[in-house]
Structure formats: C-alpha cells, structure tokens
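[Meeting: bench + compute handoff]

Bench side (C.D.) handed over the final construct sequence. Compute side (W.E.) agreed to return the predicted structure before the next meeting so the bench team could plan truncations. Sequence as handed over:
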Amino acid sequence: MAFTVDLSGKTAVITGSNSGIGLGIAQELAKAGAHVVLNSFTDRAEDHALAEEIARETGVKARYIQADMSKGDECRRLIEEAGVCDILINNAGIQHVAGIPDFPVEKWDAIIAINLSSAFHTTAVALPMMRKAGWGRVVNIASAHGLTASPYKSAYIAAKHGIVGLTKTTALETAEEPITANTICPGYVLTPLVESQIPDTMKEYDMSREEVIKNVMLKRQPSKEFATVEQMGGTTAFLCSDAAAQITGTAISVDGGWTAL
C-alpha cells in the first residue's frame, strides 16, 4: 500500500513560495489536502495566479499574501492576515558570496533578516494559533550549509546554522504538545534559478552541461544528482503527517550524501 498524507482541513503558510522549493512544497501540501497561503515580497498578477492555479488543480483554498520577509512586522502580519496557521514552512531566503572583510554590511543584515529572523517572527505568531488548534507543524528550510560550511558564504551559513538551532528550541518548547518542529537541509536542488545558471557556467568553464553539473555544481554532492522540488515537497508533507508525530527537533538532510562526507 502506498504511503499517503492527509492534511485535509489544515492551513499551511509557506514563505518565499512563488517559485522554486517554496512553490514545490506548496503544491505538494495542497495535493495532500491542505489549504495553502503563498508568499513573496512582490505583488504581481502572476503571484496571485499561482494560488488560483493550485486551487483549481487541487480543490483546496489557496491565496497569495505579499509580505517582505526582511521586515519583522511584515513577517508577523503575514501570519496574522492568514488568520490560521496549522503548518508553517519558513522557506524564504537570499544569498550573497564574498570574503568576510569584503562582505557588504547591508547584505549581511538582509541575509540574517530574511534567512533567520523572519522564521523567528512567523513562529512567534504561529505557535499560539497552533496551540489554540491543538495541533501544529513547523518546518524550516535550512541547507546543507546549516550543518557544514564553505568559504565566502559567512552570512548564509550563520543564518542557516541559526535556523537549525531555532528549530531545536522550538521543538523543546513544544515537546509536550501535539506540535513538532523540524529542519530540512537540502543540498543542490534543481530549481528554475539553478537551471538558469547552467548555461553561463558552461561558458565560464568551457564545459558541457553534464560536466558542469557533475564537476562544478554537484562537486560536493556525492550522488551527483540534484534533489528535486517534488522531493522537497514530499519530505515536507511526510513531516506534517501523523507518521512523523514523534519526529521533532531534527535536521533532515536531503543532500545526496553531502553532509556524510
């Protein structure tokens, strides 16, 4: 018998979900029956159209709420405006690469705000809703860089390590309640953004597509295969299921063996 997840009647709020991993998670949760709230910092017709498409394809309620995850008050407004938050997926994130002496202060501040502080603000508002409902799931999307490090990514790595720690604290504070908190730590995931980087990388290294993927992008990913947004969505859905009720405070790697090295 195939494993199925039934999230009927639950409402999931997914930050940074108008593309890539966030959108893949929203789609998978909707397939499992959850109503979904999409989010990003833009407020375009196509953002709202994504929610309408999910609703049309799955039959759940879906809406889009604009909120800038670099601003704490907007993070909190997102959850308040959603009205219900049984499942919170903190996925919003940005990246910048530079050595520590040259790392722009404004980039450090933005990365810490969006990749880490936003999860604190949304969780602070969502937990009372979950407690009132008597059930809840928090899934924070970190990275393999939440468990290991690379040079030139100081802010990103600090934020993702912080997400792992915040998750553990959330889990301990809710350990005797029917609420869980876990982190997913992806390696390279084949998103539209990553796909768009391949042609330029091919030119830079004078390599074929296959060589770039295996020897450059997936150099640290032993499987030499990208994770997919569908796999990210499936892992998230499992963590929201009854089967995962005793999984809390855990960092689950979806990285092709990266952190096993």
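W.E. noted at the follow-up: The longest strand covers residues 179-186. C.D. will use this when planning the next construct.
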